[in-house]
TrEMBL record:
It comes from Glycomyces rhizosphaerae. The keyword Membrane applies. This is Uncharacterized protein. It comes from the Bacteria. The chain crosses the membrane at residues 14-36, 43-62, 87-108, 147-168. The lineage of its organism: Bacteria, Bacillati, Actinomycetota, Actinomycetes, Glycomycetales. Keywords: Membrane, Transmembrane, Transmembrane helix.
Length: 184
């Protein structure tokens, strides 16, 4: 059995750096997007691209890792390799789950911003019967949107945290396999 190589190096150790960088940037950018609303318009497209690209990078890394494991242990994987692979798959499924959650939150936020712009362009509300100015948004879904955004945002935060955790565990278990026995 042969494994894919680049310049006689197995592909897995080369491609695994892409998810480390991409998922790390996704977690940091995602936290900034969720927790700092004024940044959303500036970083939204970059984070959305990371939400789509990161699972693809992880999938490529998992596949090349399985090829490498099959090359070195063709009769069955050790428990350490199985655990490392499981962390990779958990990371992948966490990122796949994040995709619809992320785009739902982004769509709700866009609707919120559109309603705010519409209200900003509208003429000032007329005074009520008691002479007080009428207040409130012309957006009938504003309250419901806030509640749903809060719940979806919490779910996105949980998924980002899980992605960071599984990235750490996959990377640490892989590094232990390669470097652990050699370190004093």
């Amino acid at each position: 059995m042969e494994i894919p190589t680049v310049l006689d190096l197995p592909l897995h150790p080369l491609v695994l750096h892409a998810p480390i960088i991409l998922v790390g940037l996704l977690v940091l950018g995602g936290l900034a997007y969720l927790l700092i609303p004024p940044l959303r318009q500036r970083i939204g497209w970059a984070v959305a691209a990371l939400v789509v690209i990161s699972p693809l990078a992880v999938y490529g890394t998992v596949l090349t890792g399985e090829q490498l494991a099959n090359f070195f242990e063709p009769d069955g994987w050790s428990d350490v390799i199985e655990q490392h692979q499981n962390y990779g798959w958990w990371l992948l499924w966490t990122l796949v789950a994040l995709v619809p959650v992320w785009f739902l939150f982004a769509g709700l936020d866009r609707g919120r911003r559109t309603a705010l712009l519409r209200d900003a362009d509208a003429p000032a509300p007329a005074a009520g019967e008691d002479g007080e100015a009428a207040s409130g948004s012309s957006d009938p879904a504003a309250t419901g949107r806030k509640v749903v955004m809060f719940i979806v945002g919490l779910l996105a935060l949980v998924l980002l945290g899980a992605a960071a955790w599984f990235l750490f565990k996959a990377g640490h278990s892989g590094a232990d396999m390669v470097w652990g026995p050699r370190m004093p």
